[in-house]
Fold:
Amino acid sequence: MEYFLELFLGGLTRGSIYALIALGYTMVYGIIELINFAHGEIYMIGAFTALIVASVLTLFGLNQIAILVLASITAVIYSAAYGFTVEKIAYKPLRHAQRLSPLISAIGMSIFLQNYVLLAQTSDFLPFPSLIPDFEFWEAYSHIIGSAELVILITTTIVMILLTFLIKFTKIGKAMRATAQDRNMAMLVGVNVNQVISMTFIIGSALAAVGGVLIASHIGMINFYIGFIAGIKAFTAAVLGGIGSIPGAVLGSLVLGLTESFATGYVSSDYEDVFAFALLVLILIFRPAGILGRSTTQKV
Amino acid sequence: MEPILDVKKLTMDFGGLRAMDHLDLDVMEKEIVALIGPNGAGKTTFFNCITGIYTPTKGDILISPPGKTRERINGLKPNHITEKGMARTFQNIRLFPNMSVLENVMIGRHCRLNSGVIGAVVKGKSTIREEKAVVEDSYKILEKIGLAEYVNETAKNLPYGAQRRLEIARAMATEPFLILLDEPAAGMNPQETRELEELIKKIRDVEGLSVLLIEHDMKIVMSLSDRIFVMDYGKKIAQGTPDEIKNNPVVIKAYLGEEVDA
Amino acid sequence: MIKFSEIKKSFLVSLWFMFLTFPIMVIRVNPIEKTVQWRWRNMMIIGIGSFLLSFVWRFMLERKESGQKKADVFGIHKISFIQRILQEPKIYIPLLIVTGVFAIVFPFIFSAYQTNIMITALMYVMLGLGLNIVVGLAGLLDLGYVAFYAVGAYSYALLNYHFGLGFWTVLPIGAVLGVIFGILLGFPVLRLRGDYLAIVTLGFGEIIRLILENWNEFSFGPSGIANIPRPGFFGIEFSLQSATNYIYYMMIGLTLFTIFVVNRLQNSRIGRAWMALREDEVACQAMGIDKTKTKLTAFALGATWAGMVGVIFAAKTTFINPASFTFLESAMILSIVVIGGMGSIIGVVIGALILILLPEYLRAFSDYRMMLFGAILVIMMVFRPQGIISNVRRTYKFQGKQQ
Ligand SMILES: Nc1ncnc2c1ncn2[C@@H]1O[C@H](COP(=O)(O)OP(=O)(O)OP(=O)(O)O)[C@@H](O)[C@H]1O
Ligand SMILES: [Mg+2]
Structure:
């Protein structure tokens, strides 16, 4: 029973990280119908930035909490900046191109960013400082869920609530929803669509950075390639929930996290990634609209 | 005589929206039938249902191609329906934009040809003969439709009116017994419209096909059609000869606010 | 004269990029030794580089837009310089002869090392032409193409290991296995929309690689399979040098064969259907083309070449392991098709030669190879989606009928 609980909470933690990344996929897809293949790399860059900032600040001898906060903020800012720039370079000129062009461009961007970090930094795995402290009051329960995992769950929940507020009640949130529903109509009623798209990339990338910092300090190691696998998995989660749907992305992520956790816990850990890929293939084949998505007839 | 197309109680729902509601419609051999109605009435949806692009929620679609037995074609894939002899054009032109005009028509011939992968690679006698025939046949169709001057032009570079005609040529190439035209005159100038009218007449009189026509230009509709069906909000509100329709108060009411220049 | 506002724009762009690349380009930390290295020179390079590149970028964008407008208004479609050369028999026939002679004498002029590189390049020409059927002609973005390549390579390695089958026996088997896998994987995914198809094929590719990595009893896991025999020639044993030459000539032959077949396919009923499918799926079906069957044919035929080249790869390197079959390999082949010009045979040949040979000969570049591929994909999509050599439509002549 305890093993089950451990796997369950581990799955939730995993899932909530996926959710932070999956939201970026789903929001971008909702607005411009593009699979932002480079999104995983934005997450990786977030983790790298945090690592670099944290290492420099450690040399300056700051205390751990200050480092955690500063590193996270820098990571969020940089990821957002990268997301914004990637959109401007690789997607904006292709707004009216054939459907596959932006996707190929996105794949190119993803490969470019991976190798950019590889060349500018290193191909080795770097140890990531465990920024999240071990709380003493949590000691008694830490065999079931560690304090790092607890922090991940809490942070994710807070971020989700903030995001919901942003989308439901702010002006930009409303503009985003309008654009997602009907871009031309939104343009007619005076929504600045370019701005909305940029904003979507910025928010999505910032969320991915939060995910990057949390997972990196949890697992304790990063390299230039972590974005690829995490990206595919988060994308799987987004599709599983119904791409374009924000609650769907969260739900899909939790389902994927739990599936992986139980599958590796009870079946075999060798095939950890195969489970995710297989799940992706199966959903797309049998229910491409996802759990919360509605299947529609393409208008002719 | 049996109608070559007989549609019964055809219904199409999109989520909660009923775009077409128990529609009955029939077309006889060598007849030009028009389907009219205000914007959003469900006319294109009707075409999409009977050509297999949408799967209708309810209803029956029966065809009796000349010289063949009657059969039900609900749920068939679009390509099978085209093979059976119903070909269409699209309201928002859907040519193969980067292929040449001739190739566009050659695609229409596809379902009447046989050569496969092996044939393509080995290029035996029958393949060569077939390829030669398809080029010539396609060219002949272009001549008939009046597009011969554009043979090697890339489709997307054609003037608008010519693109609409090319859609018709492509549909003709599939050897249909019934051709479905979705607003063929849309965006054409008066000169082009007149030529189109001639062409549609020719398709019926010379080629011997039946035509089902969606059109907003009432002049064409009234002068060409043998019979007219009128739709509004997915329902059939009237049917009859052009004269009957012109004087039908229900039709006039549906069109109120829209000009009826008949 | 460059306007001041342009300079200001580029200046801002350059500032932005210096900010953007600051942590990753300038700082390098060594968390183990706890040292930090500051590389300010990189910042300067980025600053100047992005300042200049932003001019080029804007210039190219403007040129592309004005070019499009011109084409829209006048219906002109410029035929590029290269295409004009290729259509002029006085030029292309001598060119072909020179290339042919060069290809024949290549192993005698250059070292075995160079010949080996050329063999690799030719393998990528074949892979590119195969993928070109799927992506370029049929418009199906297949990101898992490497899976079929792996199928070919492992089928030779394993069939040889267990049953001692020779290269020439397995070559057709590899092709057939490619077809079978193409159909097996293709069948469920082909009704998906374009971008989903891309992701699912990527998923399949990774699944196959992960299985090869983890199923030790079957594939010998990450350590791979060694001592795979080179292709034989009626039982004659070759020295390493002549084995290389032998493979080289075999590759020339197979490449010509591939070009021949792909060219025939492209100009056939099936080839036209593929192109139509790429242009407009709905219209294609409405014209009586069976979408699933046509897509499946493209997928399976594309996989055939990957299966065949896989066998050759195993025979050439005599050692394979799953690390050779990553997503990056698929991406590389895709770059070849994209840079060459989707749907254009000569384009793909040139694309493969450029992308494989350039990094080999410009050693300085070889580290930047993958980064370059990524950048090429983006730049080509933004500025020249039709590739270096766009696919020109064949023209037909009708005697006396045309003015
Ligand atoms: N695939 C679809 N999904 C959802 N709604 C659809 C779809 N196709 C059509 N509709 C809806 O069905 C209704 C009828 O549309 P349809 O295109 O058939 O009208 P129409 O009579 O052809 O109009 P028009 O004269 O403007 O071409 C419209 O309200 C339209 O929005
Ligand atoms: Mg319509």
Remarks:
- The mean pLDDT of chain A is 87.
